[in-house]
Amino acid sequence: MAFKSAHDPHLASALNERFRGHAERDFTIWAEQHAYATAGDIPADATKAWIGRQKLNYRGIGARQALRHLISGNVDQAFLEEIGALANLERLELEWPMVAKDLSPLLRLEKLTFLTIDSPRHIADFDLLLRLPALRTLIITDAKKMASLDWLAEAHHLEVIGIEGSMYSPYTLPSLKPLAGLRSLQALLGVSTKLADDSLTALAACPDLVFLGIARVAPQADFERLQRLKPDLVCDWFRPEMWATLKPPR
């Protein structure tokens, strides 16, 4: 992938939107056209739906086999079991909070290419998600029980990885070393994060990496080192003006 200017601030914003899939998920449009109070309200031929769990309002959603893109919040285990029956689902966004304790129902979603999970408070082991054959984008937010990124060391099929904290609870990444050499990785997303070892060097070994949308997790010198190693990589922290009025990270 080639860019006219890797250090254009507008490019970083555009890539962030693209890799997060925001262009296909305008909430104003979704609220007007795809939001439903109950699963029974979803037309049988609907390809998109947005429904948050309220009591048992999700019951029957597993029969909506035309769905390709689902946004759901407050998903518990019973709701997740129904979601697992949506054999044609390609994109799934599990919004805050995700209270289910077992992710295994998702393994039935063999066409799923895009998955986001916000605040999976009961989940510590995410390895099984890598068994989803079509998955290319995986973004996990505020996973308080995730100990490290070691489980991603063989995720060579993923094109977008997001491991992020929340506004009031930054997630500390022990190290980026498990990501070194991931063959398909195009974007790493990590807002509201810290980095325990202050080293970005492992990312230089990701051949297809084009966008780094991460917090100020390392000293300026380390961002500069990565920029020298990957001059076409797009990252806001490669621009000197971003550092002009900032104190060094703790």
From TrEMBL:
<protein>
    <recommendedName>
        <fullName>Leucine-rich repeat domain-containing protein</fullName>
    </recommendedName>
</protein>
<dbReference type="InterPro" id="IPR032675">
    <property type="entry name" value="LRR_dom_sf"/>
</dbReference>
